[in-house]
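A favour, since you know our C-alpha coordinates better than I do. Go ahead and set the record down below.
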Amino acid sequence: MKARTVRSDMHYEVAFSRPAFSRIASFFQIIEPIYDAFSSELVVPSDAISLQNGTTIATSGVTLSLFSGLSVFEAKLDGYKAHLIDLRSSEAINQAKRHVRLFEDAVSGFLTDSVRGHSRLMTPSWITLQGGAAAAKDLVRTLTWLPDSDDPFQIGATNTRSLVKFECLNDNDRYKIGITVDKSALPEADLFLELSGEYSSDSHFCNFDDKVTHLANISRTVIDKLDITME
Protein backbone atom coordinates (compact mmCIF):
# COMPACT_ATOMS: atom_id res chain seq x y z
CA MET A 1 0.00 0.00 0.00
CA LYS A 2 1.47 3.36 -1.03
CA ALA A 3 1.79 5.99 1.68
CA ARG A 4 3.19 9.45 2.33
CA THR A 5 4.24 11.18 5.55
CA VAL A 6 2.48 14.51 6.00
CA ARG A 7 3.96 15.35 9.40
CA SER A 8 6.83 13.99 11.49
CA ASP A 9 7.94 15.12 14.95
CA MET A 10 10.78 14.22 17.29
CA HIS A 11 10.89 14.46 21.09
CA TYR A 12 14.00 13.70 23.12
CA GLU A 13 14.25 13.67 26.92
CA VAL A 14 17.20 12.97 29.21
CA ALA A 15 16.65 12.61 32.96
CA PHE A 16 19.55 12.86 35.40
CA SER A 17 19.78 10.30 38.18
CA ARG A 18 21.65 12.97 40.15
CA PRO A 19 20.84 16.67 39.52
CA ALA A 20 23.52 19.31 39.06
CA PHE A 21 23.51 20.67 42.61
CA SER A 22 26.57 22.90 42.25
CA ARG A 23 24.83 24.99 39.57
CA ILE A 24 21.80 26.02 41.63
CA ALA A 25 23.17 29.49 42.43
CA SER A 26 24.51 30.20 38.94
CA PHE A 27 22.11 28.31 36.69
CA PHE A 28 21.20 31.43 34.70
CA GLN A 29 24.75 31.32 33.29
CA ILE A 30 23.75 28.34 31.13
CA ILE A 31 22.22 30.87 28.73
CA GLU A 32 25.69 31.79 27.50
CA PRO A 33 26.89 28.31 26.41
CA ILE A 34 23.53 27.60 24.80
CA TYR A 35 23.62 30.89 22.90
CA ASP A 36 27.22 30.31 21.82
CA ALA A 37 26.43 26.79 20.60
CA PHE A 38 23.61 27.93 18.31
CA SER A 39 24.93 31.34 17.24
CA SER A 40 27.77 29.64 15.37
CA GLU A 41 25.17 28.25 12.95
CA LEU A 42 22.21 30.65 12.96
CA VAL A 43 21.01 34.01 14.22
CA VAL A 44 19.48 33.56 17.67
CA PRO A 45 16.73 36.18 18.26
CA SER A 46 17.07 38.23 21.43
CA ASP A 47 13.79 36.85 22.77
CA ALA A 48 14.50 33.23 21.86
CA ILE A 49 16.04 32.29 25.23
CA SER A 50 14.08 32.66 28.45
CA LEU A 51 14.91 31.86 32.07
CA GLN A 52 12.45 30.35 34.51
CA ASN A 53 13.35 31.41 38.06
CA GLY A 54 11.72 28.57 39.94
CA THR A 55 12.21 27.72 43.58
CA THR A 56 13.08 24.05 43.05
CA ILE A 57 15.39 21.96 40.90
CA ALA A 58 12.42 20.86 38.80
CA THR A 59 11.03 24.36 38.16
CA SER A 60 14.20 26.36 37.49
CA GLY A 61 15.07 26.17 33.82
CA VAL A 62 16.13 27.72 30.55
CA THR A 63 14.10 27.47 27.33
CA LEU A 64 15.32 28.11 23.78
CA SER A 65 12.60 28.50 21.15
CA LEU A 66 13.52 28.66 17.46
CA PHE A 67 11.65 28.85 14.14
CA SER A 68 8.43 30.23 15.63
CA GLY A 69 8.27 27.46 18.22
CA LEU A 70 8.86 24.53 15.87
CA SER A 71 12.08 23.73 17.77
CA VAL A 72 12.01 24.07 21.55
CA PHE A 73 14.86 23.10 23.88
CA GLU A 74 14.55 22.99 27.67
CA ALA A 75 17.32 22.60 30.23
CA LYS A 76 16.84 22.05 33.95
CA LEU A 77 18.99 20.90 36.82
CA ASP A 78 17.45 17.43 36.65
CA GLY A 79 17.56 16.91 32.88
CA TYR A 80 16.85 18.40 29.45
CA LYS A 81 14.40 18.05 26.57
CA ALA A 82 14.16 18.81 22.86
CA HIS A 83 10.87 19.09 20.97
CA LEU A 84 11.14 19.27 17.17
CA ILE A 85 7.84 19.74 15.34
CA ASP A 86 6.80 19.20 11.73
CA LEU A 87 10.06 17.96 10.19
CA ARG A 88 9.06 18.10 6.53
CA SER A 89 12.20 16.93 4.74
CA SER A 90 15.40 14.94 5.22
CA GLU A 91 17.25 18.27 5.36
CA ALA A 92 14.99 19.45 8.20
CA ILE A 93 15.51 16.17 10.03
CA ASN A 94 19.30 16.41 9.70
CA GLN A 95 19.20 20.02 10.91
CA ALA A 96 17.08 18.98 13.90
CA LYS A 97 19.52 16.21 14.80
CA ARG A 98 22.42 18.66 14.55
CA HIS A 99 20.66 21.16 16.81
CA VAL A 100 19.93 18.49 19.42
CA ARG A 101 23.63 17.62 19.49
CA LEU A 102 24.57 21.31 19.88
CA PHE A 103 22.12 21.70 22.74
CA GLU A 104 23.13 18.45 24.42
CA ASP A 105 26.83 19.34 24.29
CA ALA A 106 26.15 22.82 25.72
CA VAL A 107 24.06 21.48 28.59
CA SER A 108 26.41 18.60 29.37
CA GLY A 109 29.41 20.93 29.35
CA PHE A 110 27.74 23.28 31.84
CA LEU A 111 26.07 20.75 34.14
CA THR A 112 29.26 18.78 34.62
CA ASP A 113 28.39 17.40 38.06
CA SER A 114 25.10 15.86 36.95
CA VAL A 115 24.80 12.10 36.45
CA ARG A 116 22.85 10.88 33.43
CA GLY A 117 20.02 8.48 34.03
CA HIS A 118 17.61 7.21 31.41
CA SER A 119 16.66 8.87 28.13
CA ARG A 120 13.63 8.68 25.87
CA LEU A 121 13.26 9.33 22.13
CA MET A 122 9.83 9.54 20.48
CA THR A 123 9.07 9.89 16.77
CA PRO A 124 5.35 10.39 16.09
CA SER A 125 4.29 10.65 12.45
CA TRP A 126 1.05 11.15 10.55
CA ILE A 127 0.64 9.31 7.25
CA THR A 128 -1.74 9.33 4.29
CA LEU A 129 -2.58 5.94 2.81
CA GLN A 130 -3.70 4.78 -0.58
CA GLY A 131 -7.28 3.97 0.25
CA GLY A 132 -7.61 6.78 2.78
CA ALA A 133 -9.21 6.55 6.20
CA ALA A 134 -10.92 3.27 5.32
CA ALA A 135 -7.54 1.61 4.70
CA ALA A 136 -6.23 2.94 8.03
CA LYS A 137 -9.31 1.63 9.82
CA ASP A 138 -8.84 -1.83 8.28
CA LEU A 139 -5.15 -1.88 9.17
CA VAL A 140 -5.80 -0.95 12.80
CA ARG A 141 -8.65 -3.46 13.03
CA THR A 142 -6.32 -6.20 11.81
CA LEU A 143 -3.85 -5.38 14.58
CA THR A 144 -6.51 -5.31 17.28
CA TRP A 145 -7.66 -8.80 16.34
CA LEU A 146 -4.22 -10.30 16.97
CA PRO A 147 -3.74 -12.46 20.08
CA ASP A 148 -2.08 -10.70 23.03
CA SER A 149 1.03 -12.84 22.59
CA ASP A 150 1.47 -12.05 18.90
CA ASP A 151 4.51 -10.09 17.66
CA PRO A 152 3.45 -8.62 14.28
CA PHE A 153 6.63 -6.57 13.80
CA GLN A 154 8.99 -9.40 14.77
CA ILE A 155 11.18 -7.22 16.98
CA GLY A 156 10.72 -9.22 20.16
CA ALA A 157 7.49 -7.68 21.42
CA THR A 158 6.54 -9.52 24.58
CA ASN A 159 3.09 -8.16 25.28
CA THR A 160 0.27 -6.05 23.93
CA ARG A 161 -0.44 -3.12 26.28
CA SER A 162 -3.72 -2.11 24.68
CA LEU A 163 -5.50 -2.30 21.35
CA VAL A 164 -2.73 -1.03 19.06
CA LYS A 165 0.27 -0.59 21.33
CA PHE A 166 3.17 -3.01 21.46
CA GLU A 167 6.27 -3.17 23.66
CA CYS A 168 9.67 -4.76 23.30
CA LEU A 169 12.06 -4.98 26.26
CA ASN A 170 15.71 -5.84 25.54
CA ASP A 171 17.54 -6.69 28.77
CA ASN A 172 20.91 -7.20 27.09
CA ASP A 173 21.12 -3.80 25.38
CA ARG A 174 19.07 -2.08 28.11
CA TYR A 175 16.27 -0.48 26.12
CA LYS A 176 12.50 -0.65 25.70
CA ILE A 177 10.67 0.05 22.44
CA GLY A 178 7.05 1.09 22.20
CA ILE A 179 5.00 1.05 18.98
CA THR A 180 1.61 2.73 18.57
CA VAL A 181 -0.51 2.37 15.43
CA ASP A 182 -3.85 4.18 15.30
CA LYS A 183 -6.18 6.17 13.12
CA SER A 184 -4.97 9.74 12.68
CA ALA A 185 -6.57 12.56 14.62
CA LEU A 186 -5.29 15.04 12.01
CA PRO A 187 -7.82 15.58 9.20
CA GLU A 188 -5.09 15.69 6.54
CA ALA A 189 -3.70 12.26 7.48
CA ASP A 190 -5.12 8.74 7.75
CA LEU A 191 -2.75 6.84 10.05
CA PHE A 192 -0.83 7.71 13.23
CA LEU A 193 2.42 5.84 13.89
CA GLU A 194 4.59 6.51 16.93
CA LEU A 195 7.78 4.80 17.97
CA SER A 196 9.38 5.43 21.32
CA GLY A 197 12.66 4.19 22.71
CA GLU A 198 13.59 4.30 26.39
CA TYR A 199 17.27 3.77 27.09
CA SER A 200 19.02 3.23 30.41
CA SER A 201 22.26 5.04 31.19
CA ASP A 202 24.29 1.89 30.45
CA SER A 203 22.48 1.09 27.20
CA HIS A 204 24.47 -0.01 24.17
CA PHE A 205 22.93 2.99 22.38
CA CYS A 206 24.80 5.57 24.41
CA ASN A 207 24.56 8.75 22.32
CA PHE A 208 21.78 10.60 20.51
CA ASP A 209 22.82 9.60 16.99
CA ASP A 210 22.88 5.92 17.97
CA LYS A 211 19.37 6.18 19.37
CA VAL A 212 18.04 7.97 16.27
CA THR A 213 19.56 5.32 13.99
CA HIS A 214 18.25 2.51 16.17
CA LEU A 215 14.69 3.86 16.18
CA ALA A 216 14.83 4.62 12.44
CA ASN A 217 15.81 1.00 11.72
CA ILE A 218 12.91 -0.28 13.80
CA SER A 219 10.58 2.18 12.05
CA ARG A 220 11.57 0.76 8.66
CA THR A 221 10.87 -2.75 9.95
CA VAL A 222 7.45 -1.73 11.28
CA ILE A 223 6.48 0.02 8.03
CA ASP A 224 7.57 -3.04 6.04
CA LYS A 225 5.52 -5.36 8.26
CA LEU A 226 2.51 -3.10 7.83
CA ASP A 227 2.92 -3.58 4.06
CA ILE A 228 3.32 0.15 3.52
CA THR A 229 5.50 1.64 0.76
CA MET A 230 6.55 5.21 1.55
CA GLU A 231 6.70 7.55 -1.44
